[in-house]
User: What shape does this take?
Amino acid sequence: MSEIVLTLLGGLVLFLYAITNLSDLIKKVTEAKPKKWLLRFTKNLFTAILTGTVITIILDSSSVVIILTIVLVNAGLLTFREAMGIVMGANIGTTISSQIIALDITKYSPIFLVIGMVMILLYSKEKMKQTGRLLIYFGMLFFGLFIMETAITPLKSEPIFEQWMHAMDNPIKGTLTGALVTVIIQSSSATVGMAIILVKKGALSLIGGIAVMLGAELGTCSDTLMATIKGSRQGIKTGIFHLVFNLMSILLCLALFDYFVDFVKYISGTIAFEKILANAHFIFNVLGVLLFVWFVPFFEKALNYFLPEKTEFNREKIIKTIT
Assistant: This one.
């Protein structure tokens, strides 16, 4: 039992290490481009949502994108309205990683590792070495998932583990568990990834997996809220909007949980359960954006009322000053 748990934890650590370094390396490779894209393509709410989606897919981290958005809002380079669009787009963009994880490619992870190492050893140009590092981190990410998948197979027959997984069938318990795990490991992608693996191996039901996914959406708000500490009123409102938007989407989904599950099953057809869970992650976030995008003016007015600006906000004046 102890060996299984240690193996599972080892796979999780490898996954978290890979996903963190992958995000950092992509930011380094792209340099200041994400900031430029956020400033350039956020002139209206629609382009802000699209920009948030695309940049999150590229950086593979909604938290990084939202924290970067808060930094730009604090600097006065983005308005609160633009930031709300980026936040909603980031929620959609983060679902792509779930689709990738649901694909059965973890067993091919050593190929990424080998190709990446060969590129680092054979090429002297820094760009090629960086590409090699990217492949290694991708390989480590999938290899970490493969290790967790291997460890779960014997673990699911343990009575305590089986009882815990059955408890996730309660949507409230599953959501709270997903939120707690995400707060602890600071990665919603890892939480959803583990849920997908558990569903794939039959250790967790599809209902439990969807509940844990909802919890991950709530837990991921913790790091973005921390980024608002000592920030401007605009930045604080951005973090609060992220929390309110996710929380309201989750509460609505829980209220209509059975209907949501049936809808996802109907849309997905007869594919494997782990792929249905990945689809649920995508559908949940897309529906949330489509529903609440119409209420953005209301959220903006409400948060502006409760958290009014201390001084007049003048984006054009700030941009002229720094340029």
Summary: The radius of gyration is 20 Å. The chain is about 80% helix and 0% strand. The chain has a mean pLDDT of 86. Residues 199 and 205 are 6 Å apart (CA to CA).
